[in-house]
TrEMBL record:
Coiled coil: none annotated. This is Unannotated protein. Signal peptide: none annotated. InterPro entries: YczE/YyaS-like (IPR038750). The lineage of its organism: unclassified sequences, metagenomes, ecological metagenomes. The keyword Plastid does not apply. Keywords: Membrane, Transmembrane, Transmembrane helix. The keyword Transmembrane applies. Pfam families: DUF6198.
Amino acid sequence: MSEERNIYESLIHWLRPHRTIPVTPWRARHRWDVSPLRLAILTLGLAFFGVGEALLVQSHLGNSPWVVFAQGVQLKSGLSLGWATFYISCSVLLLWIPLRERPGLGTILNIIVIALFLQIGVDHIPMQSNFWLGLVFALLGIASVGVASALYITCGLGPGPRDGLMTGIHQKTGIRVGRVRLGIEALVLVVGGLLGGRIGLGTALFAGLIGQSVAISCGILARLTRQ
């Protein structure tokens, strides 16, 4: 009984969320401070992000807000989901100009790698028709996006286009970051839904769990890299 309790306490310790972004050994000094290890971790994280989003799409239970929007654009334009995501990311990056946000290597790779692996994922991961398998796919997707976010954020090579838009608006207006993010994601969700993007249980699960998924992943990274 004591051994089982120790295992339980150890698991709880490792899954404890982290309140801040951990400082990792691979963290860059500036947004263009490239090294082979940093580049590998960044690319791995962004690839995981794309695959995680693909798992949500293929769960057939609903997508994350930005992918709802991308799917709506896909349906109306005839583009693939990957290309729709790529063009949306480029368009969001243009909105950085009046906000005077500066991209980094992570910003550029975010646009390319996520779109690429999202498309690879939807091309090769089977679409689910069974609710319970779809639910497993959705939860795995949320976990993957959480791990991916922790990996690429801790590289310190610049935010993705959407995150940069959020922080840029926050800095220009003084509106709280959480409210800015909520407003942006609500807008793209509504527009994407009107265009035909899939909204459902997966969308709600993503909204409710993604913050905790990122925080837990950051906590695990912090404990793994603690000196």
